[in-house]
Amino acid sequence: MVARAARATDLADLDGAITDCFACPRLVDWREEVARTRRAAFRDQDYWGRPVPGFGAPDNRAGRGGAGPPATGPGPASEARIAILGLAPAAHGGNRTGRVFTGDRSGDVLFAALHRAGLANQPTSVAADDGLTLAGVRIFAAVRCAPPDNKPTPAERDTCAPWVHREVALIRPTLRVVVALGAFAWAAWWPVLRQVYGVRPPSPRPVFGHGAHWSGSAAPDLLGCYHVSQQNTFTGRLTTQMLDDVFARAKQLAGVD
Ligand code: SF4
Questions:
Q1: Which residue stretches belong to region Disordered (predicted)?
Q2: Which of 40, 53, 139, 221 sits a CA distance of 20 to 30 A from 10?
Q3: Could you read off the pLDDT of 168-181 as tens digits, one per residue?
Q4: Which atom of ligand 1 is nearest to the CA of 23?
């Protein structure tokens, strides 16, 4: 799996390899069990039940649903200048629809914010073939399979890391800013620095917080953002304004209009 990730020639090749990964027995069992049993509200749907690859610029290709068009012609909008790094797919969201942050309440909040920021062509994300395209943004998770209780183990995070490393390597020429959604994603970024950029992570590690900003000369800027989970948005820990401020800052740092 490590070797397969390293030799992925482009994002489409990487996506194909990710969706065929069975490296974590616990997560494979869980993603497939959820897909078999299904939630009552989605009983008539055919769950994806596999790893969920990244989505967005430059190809807007979903793991399920095929290739979409670039958001615009050549320029910053069709380049992955901003990456959004999440935790893992939701059992009845990405694990159901086959596209990251698609079909759940977290995705509703995230894509509405991206649309307000001018980074998405529509405010909703309900299915892999719903016409959504992102401009200047690519989204992927630190762990590509839905974990029980949304809690991957450290070992599963480390096992899945080569997929993140390769995805970042493939968009490295255009990538300027990474928005880490939550402390788990924030922590998952530091090994990328070493593996992809050959940069020694800062020590001690900068502490995660909403609006936290780390800047390194030979790597993308890192911005912290509270996760768009219902736990944060329903309680007011993460407000619409806080989310908008982070994406405004990301656009500014990335040179995306
Ligand atoms: S979590 Fe990552 S490494 Fe583990 S099975 Fe899923 S895609 Fe493979």
A1: 52-76
A2: 221
A3: 999 999 999 999 99
A4: 5
Task: Give per-residue pLDDT as tens, 73-100.
Answer: 556 778 999 999 999 999 999 999 999 9
Q: Please indicate whether residue 28, judged by its CB atom, sits closer than 6 Å to ligand 1.
A: yes
pLDDT, position 47? 96
The confidence score (pLDDT) of residue 68 equals 58
Contact between 87 and 184 (Cβ < 8 Å): yes
* Ligand 1 atom, smallest distance to 28 CA: 5
Could you give the angle at the alpha carbon of 253 between the alpha carbons of 245 and 81, nearest 5°? 105
Helices 105-116, 240-254: inter-axial angle, 10-degree rounding: 50
* Closest alpha carbon to 161 in 139, 185, 182: 185
**Cβ of residue 167 lying under 6 Å from some atom of ligand 1:** no
The number of the ligand 1 atom at minimal distance from the alpha carbon of 152 is: 1
**Per-residue pLDDT, 257:** 78
Indicate whether residue 219 lines ligand 1 (CB < 6 A).
no
Q: For ligand 1, say whether the CB of 156 is within 6 Å of any of its atoms.
A: yes
Q: Counting atoms of ligand 1 from 1, which one is nearest the CA of 159?
A: 3
HEC per residue, 142-187? CCCCCCHHHCCCHHHHHHHHHHHHHHHHHHCCCCCEEEEECHHHHH
Tens-digit pLDDT profile for residues 191-231: 999 999 999 999 999 999 999 999 988 999 999 999 999 99
